[in-house]
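Lay summary. Proteins are chains of building blocks that fold into shapes, and those shapes determine what they do. In this project we predict the shape from the chain. Here is one chain we studied, written as its sequence of building blocks.
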Amino acid sequence: MKTPQFRLSPIASLVVLSALSVVSAHAQRVRPPVIPPVVIGPGKLTRIDFKEIFDKLKAEQDKAKEALEAAQRKINEALQKQQVELAKQQEALQKQKEAEQERQKQLEAEQKAAQRQEEINEKLRELAEKDQEIVNTGDDN
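And here is the predicted shape, written in a compact code that computers can read:
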């Protein structure tokens, strides 16, 4: 049996070839490459090699995760220590402010007492002067 032969014009053959190349390119993009379970060639990787590499990467990732968690714990501990220190400093500052306010009140009280004492001394001087005047005027009589 003879197979029929078709002759295409040069333009039609270009159209068919370009369509086939587009379909082929699309098919290669859609399907992921298949890795056979055997050695592909000398010096090339196998599925087993990929599994080992994946396991190593996973182990490294786990180590990195543990290191990150340890670093976060250290940072949190340092932050807690800083917060405790800050609280102590704030408490000391508050006590210092209270002591300063108490000193200020005491100073004001001392100033009032000194002013009152000065007023009393002034009145005593006035009384002493009046008394002296009375004594002096009494001596003249």
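What the prediction tells us: The longest helix spans residues 47-140.
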